[in-house]
Design a protein that fits this description.
Layout: E1 2-5, H1 18-30, E2 34-37, E3 52-55, E4 58-61, H2 63-74, H3 84-111, H4 113-124, H5 131-150, H6 157-175, H7 188-201, H8 208-215, H9 217-230
Length: about 230
C-alpha cells in the first residue's frame, strides 16, 4: 500500500498545499490505492517538504518525481493518449501553475496580513504549546525568504497581483469550453490544475487574483467537475 505523507486537510479542501492535493488527486484519478498520513511532519520528509510517499521500502519525495515513479512502476493510465505536442503544452502549463502562479498565491497567504491570519490558523492552529507560539513565525520567515530567492517577493503587491491575474487569464482562455485542460478526458495536468485552482477559488483568502478566477465562471465549473470526478 502506498503511504502518502502530507499536511492535514484545511480550508475545506483535501489539502491547503496544492502540491499535496495534486498528488492525492492524481492517485484518485489513476485508481491507485493509498493510505493518507496527514501528520504534516516536514522534519521527517526526505527533502524537508511535503508530500512524499512510502511504497514498500521505497521512499520518493516531490510531487512530480513521485508521479514519474508511480507511472514507471504501475503504468500511466492518464497521459498515454497525449501527443508529443500536447505533452509539451501540458508541461508548460504545469510550470505556470507550480513555478509562477504558486508564488503569487503564496504572497497572498503568507505575506499579506489578512491572508496570513487565515493561513496561520489553517496550518498551525492545532499545534500544541509551545510550538504554536514560535513555529508559525519561523515558518513564515522561511517562506518569505524563499519568495525573495525565487524573485516573486521582490515585486510590489500590485505587481504580484497582476502576475497572478495574467496566469489565471491564460489558464481560463486555454480551458475555454473544454471539459478538461487537455481535452475530453483528464490527464496529469488536471490533477495539477484542479489542485491549484481549487486552492485559489475555494480557500478563504481574498485577493485580486482570486477575484479574477471567480470572474471566469467556467473555472469554477471545471473545479466542480473535477471534484465530482475524483470525489475530493
Amino acid at each position: 500500500m502506498i503511504r502518502l505523507h502530507q499536511f492535514a486537510p484545511a480550508f475545506g479542501l483535501p489539502n491547503a498545499s496544492p502540491f499535496c492535493m495534486k498528488l492525492e488527486i492524481w492517485l484518485r484519478l489513476a485508481g491507485l490505492p493509498y493510505e493518507a498520513v496527514d501528520i504534516g511532519d516536514v522534519l521527517k520528509a526526505p527533502k524537508r517538504k511535503l508530500p512524499y510517499i512510502e511504497d514498500g521500502v521505497r521512499v520518493v519525495a516531490d510531487s512530480t518525481f513521485i508521479i514519474d515513479y508511480l507511472k514507471a512502476t504501475y503504468g500511466d493510465p492518464l497521459d498515454g493518449w497525449l501527443s508529443p505536442s500536447q505533452r509539451a503544452v501540458a508541461l508548460a502549463f504545469q510550470r505556470l501553475f507550480e513555478e509562477n502562479l504558486y508564488w503569487a498565491v503564496v504572497h497572498t497567504r503568507w505575506a499579506e496580513p489578512a491572508g496570513w491570519e487565515k493561513t496561520r490558523e489553517a496550518f498551525f492552529g492545532t499545534l500544541p504549546a509551545p510550538l504554536r507560539w514560535f513555529l508559525p513565525t519561523l515558518a513564515r520567515r522561511g517562506m518569505l525568504a524563499q519568495m525573495q530567492g525565487q524573485g516573486m517577493g521582490r515585486h510590489s503587491p500590485a505587481d504580484i497581483h497582476a502576475i497572478g491575474v495574467r496566469d489565471v487569464t491564460a489558464v481560463a482562455d486555454f480551458l475555454a469550453d473544454k471539459p478538461y485542460l487537455m481535452g475530453a478526458q483528464p490527464c496529469t495536468l488536471d490533477a495539477t490544475g484542479y489542485a491549484f485552482l481549487a486552492n485559489l477559488l475555494w480557500a478563504p483568502v481574498d485577493s485580486p487574483i482570486r477575484d479574477a478566477a471567480r470572474a471566469r465562471g467556467h473555472l469554477q465549473a471545471y473545479c466542480e467537475r473535477m471534484k465530482a470526478r475524483c470525489g475530493a
